[in-house]
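We emphasize that the prediction below concerns an isolated chain of 265 residues; any contacts that depend on oligomerization or on bound cofactors are therefore not represented. The input was used exactly as deposited, without trimming of termini.
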Amino acid sequence: MSQYAIRLSIFSVLIYFMSSCVTSKTVNYMQQPGWGIPAYKDSISFSDYIMRTGDRVYVRVYSTDTKTNALFNGTGGGNNQGMMNSGGGGMLDLYTYVVEQNGTIDFPMIGAVSMVGKTIREATLTLEEAIKPLFKFSSVEIRILNRSFSVIGNGNSAFVSMPQEKISIFKALAMSGDVGMFDDRSRIRVLRETPQGIQIKMFDLRSADIIHSEYYYIEPNDIIYIQPSNEQFFRITTLSGFVSTVISTFSFGVLIFNSFKIITK
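Result of the prediction step, given as a token string:
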């Protein structure tokens, strides 16, 4: 083997190893756009959650009439909030309604009340209007139960309950254990159910522009997919690790080369 070929091989190996190193550019958040970091247009919009089929809805009725309260909230209605905070239970299920395929819930003494396509506020006003002819001086509280999102990819998975209707992507990832050292932050995907079907949004989590974009908020039932990065093959994160890997690989290459020369003699 010529000296030129040996030098070319060594140079190629070094370039390959250097491209496999994990650097601050590949893992740091809030980087300014440019040099491989994309810019996103200012498209952030915090729209209220739109109710959909299959949602579990907790309904509480407030009235000046104790009989009305007992009818809709039970005799222990005052403890329903505590039950909800503790995760539910049999009593709470009595006052929880599932949004059916036809887009309604079946509310006692009222019948079908439309929910799909409405925000929580709109659904609350709709139910209050439906109750008003029967029970005056009543108000309604509606909450979505079992709000959650999922994180999958690179051998890790998490199913996380949401403390509110929408949370930021950074908070969602922090709640699920953050992104791993060898996960690809430049190709985060979010699968989202919409009335028009499943949408897949892909974005670069490293960009500082993310906070102004449509990708900033996570909604209930979202699935966050995190794929492994190309740098994880050698898992080089430090200079000493880089040097050690290069020396080991070069030594192995020399051994193979010498063995090949002996065999071919």
